[in-house]
Amino acid sequence: MSSPTPSSPSPLRRKLITGVAVLAIAGIAVAGYMFSPINRQLAETPMPALGQHLDDEIARGAYVARAADCAPCHTAPDGIPYAGGLVINTPFGKMASPNITPDPETGIGGWSRDAFARAVREGVTAHPGNLYPTMTFTSYTKMSDADIDALYAYMMAMPPVTQEAPDLELDFPFNQRLLLSGWRKLFFDNSEFEADPALSDEVNRGAYLVQGPAHCSECHTPRNAFGAQKASMMLAGAQIDGFWAPNLTPDAETGLGKWSEDDLYTYLSGKDGVHGGPFGPMYDVVAEGTSHLTESDLRAMAAYLHQLEPIRHATGAALDHADASASIERGRVAYRVNCSACHRLNGEGVPNFAPAIAGHHAVGASADNVIAPVLTGLSDKDGRIAMPAFLLDDTSIADIANYVRNAMNDTESATATPEQVAAVRETLH
Ligand code: HEC
Ligand code: HEC
Ligand code: HEC
Fold first, then answer.
1. Where on the phi/psi map is residue 14: left (φ > 0), alpha (ψ -120 to 50), or beta?
2. CA of 343 relative to ligand 3 center, distance in Å
3. Which tens digits make up the pLDDT trace of 238-263?
4. How far apart are CA 280 and CA 409, in angstroms?
5. What is the pLDDT, as a whole number, of residue 349?
6. Which ligand 1 atom is the nearest neighbour of the CA of 143?
7. Which residues line ligand 1 (CB under 6 A)?
8. Vertex 273, ends 402 and 220: CA angle to 5°?
9. What is the pLDDT of residues 346-355, one digit of tens each?
10. What single string gives the DSSP state of each residue in 11-68?
């Protein structure tokens, strides 16, 4: 962590965080908002800088970049870290992440600290102008000046790489950046992070990390029809790339009510936890991001999540009894044929080969978390084998999801339907 040379992130599966956020901007744009940069109040940062334990600015910046997961999005599979080119699928077409190494021609070499801060915290650049919220400035807007300074020092100290981003265009009308101005007016809240004096320093630290650099809510908070996060459902669970990013509030039934602060810490640190490990989009968050953070920062995030107001958020209506029993019964057979060789008949998995999917909290949280892995497969990581994608019909996949959740994960009713599988298939393209 003390060297400015970035490590190479693993090839990524993450495609879309807030591509959906552009949804319906065309509709809002008729209001004719003109581009108007938001004036950010430059108040004193209420939080101490991240990575305070590190002795120089560049190392602190590398730490901030880890917390903020900048590399995974700005690196193509097997590409040079931060040189961009990751192709991100959005419902409106493909976009490629730009090169953010300090190359003067193709990267951000000529950028001042303020231009950099404006891009990261406000989502505005000289060219091309308004950034799509696929770049998670909607959370980074809470980052402190000190963290931005360190991040800038780190970025500028990195070896420049000359590499143009692939020239991809979103479909019309979503390729009209001017339309983003309307969206920003209505939905971009660029208020700074404010520590709550009623809470401990640790909880405030966790709040800063979760809401700001670590941008947990970009995936874990449901969005309205315009792709903006619903404030009343903060961290209460949402679908992302076909997977279900579960409810992180401590609701006893639909959230993390059974997780201790220690469980959360263990999970984020990347060690084996008692509630199942991360997979899909969350795998990169842990492998590239949180597992590199200090114990005190991870414990702070756990403490913050633990004291949130519980929000109930059910996932899917229960099928009627006869339909549920029939589906679970078919699922038992299909599971034995397709899945048991790796995950064993009872779902306990095989150590160092295939993970347990029984007693796996995120699998219990929503049928999406069986459906999406089965449809897409999961890439090999850390020497583990890959999970193949399955060419099964929608009914069989729904049956397997119902069986796995009912028989192995304490989910009393069955909720998955062929329509739900078709919908996930659609999101995954
Ligand atoms: C979820 C993916 C994602 C993450 C995480 C992310 N970015 Fe981005 N970033 C993008 C995309 C996509 C764009 C291009 C958006 C556009 O063209 O509208 C972008 C644009 C930028 C730009 C503007 C570059 C230019 O040439 O216009 C900068 C600077 C930048 N990101 C820096 C960062 C930094 C620093 C971090 C970490 C704090 C970060 N990004 C994290 C996806 C991401
Ligand atoms: C790129 C999207 C994304 C981001 C960003 C993200 N998560 Fe997740 N998270 C997911 C998905 C999808 C799952 C479900 C799959 C799994 O369990 O790995 C998940 C699962 C989890 C779980 C397990 C929950 C359960 O019920 O088993 C925890 C805890 C968690 N995330 C915490 C966090 C925290 C804390 C952050 C911020 C540091 C964060 N996540 C950021 C997508 C994301
Ligand atoms: C060839 C072995 C293999 C088969 C067959 C297989 N899986 Fe997997 N599965 C894996 C591996 C390996 C992982 C972990 C992959 C990763 O996260 O990189 C995994 C992960 C999962 C996960 C996410 C849990 C986690 O912690 O990673 C779910 C859910 C899952 N499998 C369900 C199924 C279902 C349902 C079937 C049958 C349709 C199935 N698997 C068939 C090997 C297999």
1. beta
2. 7
3. 999 899 999 999 999 999 999 999 99
4. 19
5. 95
6. 38
7. 17, 68-70, 73-74, 88, 95, 97-98, 100, 108, 116, 119-120, 125, 131-132, 134-136, 140, 151
8. 60
9. 999 998 899 9
10. P-----SSGGGGTTHHHHHTT-PPP-PPPPP-PPPSSPPTTTTSSSHHHHHHHHHHHH
Pairing status of strand 87-90 against strand 93-96: antiparallel
> Is the model more confident about 70 or about 17?
70
Q: What is the mean pLDDT of residues 322-342?
A: 97
Ligand 3 mutation pick, 340, 348, 387, 399, max ligand atoms within 8 A of CB: 387
As a whole number, the mean pLDDT across the chain is 86
* Three-class SS state of 304: helix
Tens of pLDDT along 185-241?
888 998 899 999 999 999 999 999 999 999 999 999 999 888 889 999 999 999 998
Listed in order, the ranges of the chain carrying CATH 1.10.760.10 are 321-428
- CA 148 vs. chain centroid, Å, equals 21
Distance separating alpha carbons of residues 353 and 385, to the nearest angstrom: 6
Closest residue to atom 25 of ligand 1, CA basis: 98
Count Cβ atoms within 10 A of the Cβ of residue 3 and give its class: 0-12 exposed, 13-18 middle, 19 or more buried. exposed
pLDDT surpasses 80 at 172 = no
CATH 1.10.760.10 fits 321-428, yes or no: yes
| Displacement of CA 10 from its chain's centroid (Å) | 16
- Helix, strand, coil shares of the chain, percent, nearest 5, are 40, 5, 55
Question: What is the spatial distance between Cα 187 and Cα 32, in angstroms, rounded to a whole number?
Answer: 15
Cα gap 408→346, rounded to integer Å: 7
Q: Rounded to an integer, what distance in angstroms lies between the CA atom of residue 284 and that of residue 215?
A: 13
How many residues comprise the chain?
429
Q: For a substitution probing ligand 1, which of 135, 145, 162, 285 has the most ligand atoms within 8 Å of its CB?
A: 135
- What is the predicted pLDDT for the residue at 308? 98
Taking the C-alpha atoms of residue 307 and residue 302, their distance in angstroms, rounded to an integer, is 9
83 Cα–ligand 1 center, Å: 11
Question: Among all chains, which residue has been given the structure tokens 């709040």?
Answer: 207
- Listed in sequence order, the residues at least 6 apart from 134 whose beta carbon sits closer than 8 Å to its beta carbon are 16, 17, 18, 19, 21, 88, 90, 95
Percent of the chain exceeding pLDDT 90 equals 69
Residue 356 to residue 350: CA distance in whole angstroms = 7
